[in-house]
Every structure is written in C-alpha cells, then in structure tokens.
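User
New here, explain this?
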Amino acid sequence: MSKIVATVTKETAETKVGLALFRNDPESPLLISLIREGGLFSATDLAPGMLALQINGTDVTGCTSKEAAELLRTAEAGDVTVVAKAAVGQAHKESADVSCGISLQRQEGKGIVITKIRDDGLFASSELAPGLRLSAINGNKCPATTKEAIAMLKGAVGDLTVVAYDPEWAVVEPEEEDAAEEEEEEAAKPEEPVKEEEEEEPAQEQAPAPEDEPEESPEQTDRALEKKEKEEGSSILDSLCTMCA
C-alpha cells in the first residue's frame, strides 16, 4: 500500500490543477479519475484509481466529487497538496502473449476484485493482493465487466500499471504532529504530589517485669513461726521479771 502526498503550486487562483475525481456510487470511496497530461499533478506520483483522502488538509473521504473539485478550483495561489492511497502494481510485458498472472472476479457490491496473484506472475512482488478492488489499468478507469478488464490486461504491451484499493483505507489517520502535541500536553501536566509514607515510631522498650520472690517451703514457714513464738515468749518473760523486781 502506498500513501502519496503530492504538492504542486498554483501560479494564480485561476490556474487549473488538471486532476479529476469520481465516485462509482454514493457508497463508493472518492477516487482520482484523471491526471491531465501536462497538468500540475502529471509530474507527481498520483495516478488514476487512487483513493483521495485529503485536499489541502481537508478530509475529502466523505465529499462528493463535485465538492472535492470545488476545493481544488477555489484554492488560492500557492501550494496545493493532495493526499491519496492505493496499492500499485507495475510490470513490463514483452508482448501481448505474456500472461500477467492475475485473476479477477466481479463481486456484487464490490466491482472487479483481485482473487489471485500467481507466484510466477508479473505482479508477484507488487503491492497488489487478493481481495483488493481493481480501480485502474494503465491510467484508465476499471471497466464494468471482468471480461473487459482481462482484455485490457492481455492486450497491454510494454509498461503496465494496475491500481487497486481497499475501501477501509478511506480513513484519514491523525497527523504525527497532532500526536506529538498530545504527548507534550501530557508531559506539561503537573505531577501529583507524592504522599510521603509515615514512618512507624520505634516501639518503646518495656521495663523488665520484677522477678517474683521465691516462695517459702512449709519447713521454712514452720521454723519462722517457732522463732517468732520464742521471741514473743522471751519478751513476756522479760516483762514479768521487770514487774517482780
């Protein structure tokens, strides 16, 4: 698939660019139908059959051929840029007897569709692939029937250019500059303050619990009582002696 960006310069607002566009029907994409020989776009890589995407930055995928032509006609003096997309196959046929190695089929609602590209054919290494819709052969609009399209391919001698497309390509992708601006906006956003984590206070050491005094044994208790009784007995005796004296 090739995306072509072609820019030419109009000397005056009245200068014609020599490019025509068409739609097969309201549901079909907008295609380039003619690049006038000697016109401004004749020296560019644009070719009949390519999907027209933009004219001077305006998305034309939803425009009618008349609306798109008006954009070209009313463009002021200066640069005029057309963006298009297509799959292009180029080959050289030595004679009309040489097979192109391409199979076509007319499908309802799709027109002429490529169904096979032979590995040893002229377009084996080209951008053409099965499933693409044929739009132009050697600068001429693709005919209405498969028989006529095959006849054009067989009868060609010398340089042969085939243009095809996928309707899904008729979507204008965002420009890289826009994507870069979005990245800059993201970078410009203030960073949210990072919440500092609270440190845990060190656990206070607990004073060691007082050691329990060892319990006295029954024998020690008995001895203590006897000693106390003796002391009390001695104390009473002393008192009596004092009174007698």
Q: What stands out?
A: Residues 194-203, 239-245 have pLDDT under 50 and may be disordered. DSSP finds four helices and eleven strands in the chain. The longest strand covers residues 78-93. Helices lie at 65-73, 146-155, 176-188, 218-244.
